[in-house]
Amino acid sequence: MERIYAFTDESGAFGWDLDNLNVSTHFIISSIIVKESDLQSLRDDVELLRQKHFQTGEIKSTHIGKNDNRRQRVLADFLSLPFSVFSVVFDKKQIMHMPGLHYKPSFYKFLNNIVHKELRRAFKILTIVADEIGGSEYMKSFSNYVSERQDIPSLLGEAEFFFENSHNDVLIQLADLVCGTLARIYDDHLKSDNSYKFKKLLDRKIIRVEIYPKTYESYTVDGSALSENYDKDIAELCLKQAIEFIKKHENDEEPERNAQVIILNYLLFRFMNNDLRKYIPTRELMNQLTSTDLADISVQSFRTRIIGNLRDNGVIISSSPKGYKIPSKQAELYDFINHGTSIIIPMLERLKKCRDLVKLNSLNQLDLFDHTEYSTLKKYFDE
């Protein structure tokens, strides 16, 4: 399994005077995710773009500031390169009522626990590269946190953590650009009128943006990213079933169950943030498992062990030849039915033809469905 590198930076800071325009309303940690085989070529290409857009300076979101047109041009160039984005966004407004987090060590520990868990869930073999210890109080705390919790398997090289000065690594600088752009999308004091444009640009690079506290419960389909012709009752039912599964199994470490949670989180992320994308191709979903124990799962196994098992557990997932999605309207439920019947009906017809031929040739002495295990099929055909 190929090693994955996560070049990590943060935006925001500790502080609870959220009415103060100088205090961030959100704390954002973003990682630029790169395959080891792409590492050197990506670094070379990013360096060329750094020279183009920042001349002798570092790639920094603050160097662009509120110049949204420039930000879009810069992002468009960088987003053509081979990397992905994994981010965790903490909404401080939603957790400020928790008095224990008003102390900096407790706040950092809360963040560290979640970021570490999400990264380890998503990536099996991971090296995290972050800014120099002296440059970030939060990253120093994260380093200490990870060091104290390195698993025994990490002795075999499954996980590493080290710091590197952003001045010397353009990929950490790229993480700064992405983090700062996400702040322009989420932070109340920095949010841009063009945030939707930034979202659209970043969309094709984002593996997942985890919002904390989890927004599933507070999410409403009214005024959401759903297309205008959604069916409220269907959308809410499908959302509810998916959330219940995640709540029940989010701490399950069994590889197959963990993979189901990852896939469902991705489907929900798309449902809640970009329904207009419609169906998500099977291969795109399978790519979410690239760095897990199920990295080499076949398409057929993915359909049965992941999607099929989710459906067996009451999660409603629509499918079509174009892929899968959490449905939000009747038409998408009928897509699932039509897609299923196009497979099931011909198969049933073949079974019926086989049974009838055997019965005919045996003068009705042999019915293949007389065995107990086929009683359901026998009942279906007879009735």
What does this structure look like?
This protein has three domains: 4-212, Ribonuclease H-like superfamily/Ribonuclease H (Nucleotidyltransferase, domain 5, 2-Layer Sandwich); 232-328, no CATH class; 333-382. The strands form two sheets. A six-stranded mixed β-sheet has the order 5-4-1-2-3-6, sandwiched between helices. Strands 7-8 form a two-stranded antiparallel ribbon. The chain has 383 residues and is of the alpha/beta class. The protein has helices at residues 39-54, 61-64, 68-78, 92-95, 104-122, 137-148, 170-186, 195-203, 232-249, 255-273, 282-286, 299-312, 330-361, 375-382, and strands at 4-11, 26-35, 84-91, 126-130, 159-163, 206-212, 318-320, 323-325. Helices cover 49% and strands 13% of the residues. Residues 152-156 have low confidence and may be disordered. The radius of gyration is 25 Å and the shape is elongated. It starts with a strand and ends with a helix. The chain contains 14 helices and eight strands.
